[in-house]
Amino acid sequence: MWQSVLIKRALPLSLSYLLLVVATLSLDSILHYADLFWIGRYLGALGTAFLVFSFGYSARKKKIVRNGTLKFFLRMHCNAGWVGTLMILIHSGVHFNALLPWAATGLMMVVTASGHVGQFLLRKFREEVKMKKMQLGISEKPGEDDHIADMQHFWDSLTVRALEQWRTIHMPLVSFLVALTLSHLLTIAFFLDWR
Predict the structure, then answer these.
(1) Any residues with CB less than 8 A from the CB of 76 and at least 6 apart, and which?
(2) Looking at residue 122, what is its pLDDT?
(3) pLDDT, greater one: 48 or 160
(4) pLDDT single digits (tens) 134-167
(5) Where are the domains of the chain?
(6) Which strand (E) or helix (H) includes residue 137?
(7) What is the 3-state secondary structure (H, E, C) of 71-108?
(8) Model confidence, pTM
(9) Can you say how many angstroms the Cα of residue 94 is from the centroid of all Cα atoms in its chain?
């Protein structure tokens, strides 16, 4: 069980997501304790810039950007997305004043979770399942080990099939998050005292 694809790959990324939540709560508390909570207002814009920067991965996949490896752009996408999400969560301050920020922050967490679960894990799961299939094909020892290997292969294959559907969820969520973010920015511009 400890060699399961789910444990070896999902656990580290689940910890990354948990670290995002813990870092947000900790940094927001520190800023409030140091009476520097006003910094959070500016982290929203900076975090949004990081998230926009993370779209470089999509631009590279669609060959809008031609230089650089996909692996580099995927790593940049994941890291910039994590840091940008952290900044925006601190910006929200774990206290909300209206429905739109609640919705945008909640959706951002769902999109982040979807990204954690999605593309990176799917690639790793496919690689490991392919390797385990080759191992199962090579193994000719009949007996109890075959049943354990068959069960492991079954659960790994089921995990991969479930995760193959992630993009059908992730991309519309990203589009909706962009729309909520733009709505948030427009309401700020509308209600801002420009004097």
Answers:
(1) 53, 54, 56, 57
(2) 66
(3) 48
(4) 776 644 445 555 566 666 666 666 666 666 677 7
(5) 5-191
(6) helix 119-138
(7) HHHHHHHHHHHHHHHHHHHHHHCCCCCCHHHHHHHHHH
(8) 0.69
(9) 19
